[in-house]
Amino acid sequence: MAPDGVKPSIGARWQRTILICGKCSKRIDGGFGEKRRTPLAKALRRFLGLKKGRKALIGIVETKCLGVCPGGAVTVIDAGSPGEWLLVRAGTALDEVAAALRLREVRPAE
Fold first, then answer.
1. Upper half-sphere CA count for residue 95 (Cβ side, 13 Å)
2. Is residue 110 pLDDT above 60, yes or no?
3. Closest by alpha carbon to 97, among 18, 30, 33, 44?
4. Nearest to residue 25, comparing CAs of 70, 77, 84, 81?
5. CA distance 65 to 92
6. What domains does the chain contain, in order, with CATH numbers?
7. Which pLDDT value is given to residue 106?
8. Measured at the alpha carbon of residue 94, what is the angle toward residues 93 and 100, in degrees to the nearest 5?
9. CA 89 to chain centre
10. HEC string of 90-104?
11. Is the pLDDT reported for residue 108 higher than 70?
12. What share of the chain is helix, strand, coil (3-state, %, to 5)?
């Protein structure tokens, strides 16, 4: 039985969880997409054809500062491999980012 302050859990379809530093994204003014103005989290969700929230196949969550602060790049963590953090340079092609995170196999059929 859960403690009084904890509600019963709800389901999510997430197969993977990706954490992306929001502060890094702001420092490079988005840095991704056609005009290089879109934050990595939003651009990656669009590229993979994912919805936002618990009904998506992959949870892509923009966090607060992760404390790495690389110049001209965004810090990304795959929660399945928490010991391996990626630094994604602004303007990197989204298919390269998806490949580095091994997200291609999770991409929904078009």
1. 0
2. no
3. 44
4. 70
5. 21
6. 16-104 (3.40.30)
7. 60
8. 100
9. 14
10. CCCCHHHHHHHCCCH
11. no
12. 25, 25, 55
- Is pLDDT of 109 > 50? no
How confident is the model at residue 76, as a pLDDT? 98
Instruction: Tell me the percentage of the chain whose pLDDT exceeds 90.
Output: 71
| pLDDT score at 10 | 86
Q: Does the structure show a pLDDT above 80 at 81?
A: yes
Tell me how long the chain is: 110
| Helix H or strand E segment including 26 | helix 22-27
User: Which residue has better confidence, 78 or 13?
Assistant: 78
Alpha carbon separation from 109 to 52, 57, 88, 104, 105 (Å, rounded)? 17, 12, 26, 10, 10
Q: In what order do the strands lie in the sheet with 58-63?
A: 58-63, 16-21, 73-78, 85-89
